[in-house]
Amino acid sequence: MSIAAILFIVVGTLFFATGVIGLLRFPDFYSRMQATAKGDTLGAVLVLAGLALYNLHGGFSTGNVLVSLKLMFIAVFWFVATPTAIHALLRAAFDFGIMPWTKDGESIIEWPPGKEDIK
Amino acid sequence: MEHFFLIIGLIMGFLILLSLYRGVFGPTVFDRIMGVGFVGSKTLVILVLMGFIYRRIDMFVDIALAYSVLLFASTLVFAKYFQRKGAR
Questions:
Q1: Annotated domain spans of chain B
Q2: Which of A93, A95, B36, B54 is deepest in the core (most CB within 10 A)?
Q3: A-chain residues within 8 Å CB-CB of B47?
Q4: What ipTM score was computed for the predicted complex, to two decimals?
Q5: Which domain holds residue A18?
Q6: Nearest residue of B to residue A7, measured between CA atoms
Q7: Residue A44 CB coordination number (10 Å)
Q8: Helices (H), A26-113
Q9: C-alpha to C-alpha distance for B46 and B55, rounded to whole angstroms
Q10: A44/B82 CB distance under 8 A
């Protein structure tokens, strides 16, 4: 059980690291957001699941099980909440009029598109 | 096992410093919000790790629970505020 917990935590840390690399290296806001949302969500969920698994190492008493359930609740909540928050942020940036990155810096379509085209 | 948690916490702190670059120098305000949100998610993990290191996980897990809800609400409020401010 301890080895599985270590595996979960290390893989989650790797996902966090890839999220940070994407956050630093990608060219525009939308691609940065894509990398960050995935790395952030899966990294936090994996690390919290690994810690909940490690917490059961000391025995299945009521307090231990309760703490592990709370940790899993944080993980599930995070799995739902982060994509929601990121989606709201993306929508706000879209309404703000941030242009997606292209190679020569000129937009392919007319940007920003009209409001009736979005919906 | 405490040493392992300590090393993971140090790695998280290093990643926080790296992603704080986007929070300070981000070209747009949404990059800043995203960088700060990313710092917050790693702070959540560090909070739980601190509970394991200090052997007070039953206390720290409640703080982490409240912190995750607060982080979600703050990102949502920032997004809605700047959406309304920049609406055409």
A1: 2-85
A2: A93
A3: none
A4: 0.87
A5: 2-118
A6: B4
A7: 25
A8: 29-55, 62-96
A9: 14
A10: no
